[in-house]
Specification:
Blueprint lengths: L4 E4 L9 H9 L2 E4 L3 E5 L2 H6 L9 E4 L2 H13 L9 E4 L2 H6 L11 E3 L8 H6 L5 E6 L4 H9 L4 E11 L12 E4 L2 H10 L9 E5 L1 H9 L6 E3 L7 H12 L5
Parallel strand pairs: 1-2, 1-9, 4-5, 4-7, 5-6, 7-8, 9-10, 10-11
Antiparallel strand pairs: 3-8
Length: 249
């Protein structure tokens, strides 16, 4: 069965996207629809976690959602975030995003290249800081492992939740391939379509945890990224569909 239509479980991209380039090149239809979304927790729920924002002089930001919900809750709880607050961001993109909420001061903002391990040298410069980690209810256990092994004084604060979106209006069997980027996205498929049978539908996943979630609920994974040969999802999909569709044969 040739691939003619793909559903990507993410919001539609900007005007330029490798997905749009692939759709044009391979003459296939690619639609976008987020299978999950984020909802912020209320201030009273944060208090039940025994979190007092004033007890921390540093914040570890692992996503843009973490940035937004930290400052949202600070405002709701009438906590004036001090100018002396130190921010350690997982990537430069997240560090730049902080400018939405604070005046950018390089001496108070450190960041890594991409992975959480990249920011560990930043902590060595400031060993006595007490850090708060804003996160979702499904944050990766890897965060705990890395910070604990590095001897960081840190506390998790669940400030937002990842919930299933209502996508029951989608004609899911109209698509030849479904693309997932998180375990929650995979689980949302089954929550919305409890009678879903994979059959000839191809499943593409990004990351080991997403792959594991798909296999746990009995889905057959046809495309996996990243790999050494295909570090991006679009590269992996394009290679697969070109082989399947017999391009160049």
């Amino acid at each position: 069965m040739k691939i003619k239509s793909i559903l990507v479980s993410q919001p539609a991209p900007n005007e330029y996207s490798p997905y749009l380039e692939m759709a044009k090149k391979e003459k296939i239809r690619i639609d976008f629809r987020p299978f999950i979304h984020v909802e912020g927790v209320e201030a009273k729920e944060l208090r039940t976690q025994k979190i007092d924002l004033s007890h921390y002089n540093g914040v570890i930001m692992t996503s843009k959602n973490a940035v937004d919900h930290y400052f949202r809750l600070a405002e709701e709880m009438r906590f004036p975030v001090p100018g002396s607050m130190r921010y350690v961001c997982q990537s430069e993109a997240i560090a730049n995003y902080l400018q939405k909420h604070v005046v950018y001061r390089k001496r108070k903002i450190g960041f890594g290249e991409k992975n959480l391990e990249d920011i560990l040298p930043v902590f060595k410069k400031y060993p006595d800081e007490k850090y708060l980690v804003p996160c979702s209810d499904v944050s990766s256990p890897e965060i705990s492992k890395i910070l604990d092994e590095a001897g960081i004084d840190w506390t998790r604060a669940v400030m937002y939740r990842t919930v299933f979106s209502d996508i029951s209006d989608i004609q899911i069997k109209d698509y030849d391939m479904l693309v997932f980027f998180s375990p929650q996205g995979v689980r949302s498929l089954m929550a919305n379509f409890q009678d879903f049978k994979q059959g000839d539908t191809k499943i593409s996943v990004f990351g080991n945890s997403t792959n594991q979630a798909a296999e746990e609920i009995g889905l057959r994974v046809d495309v996996m990224a990243p790999t050494k040969e295909t570090p991006s999802m679009t590269m992996a999909i394009e290679k697969y569909i070109r082989n399947l569709n017999g391009v160049g044969k």
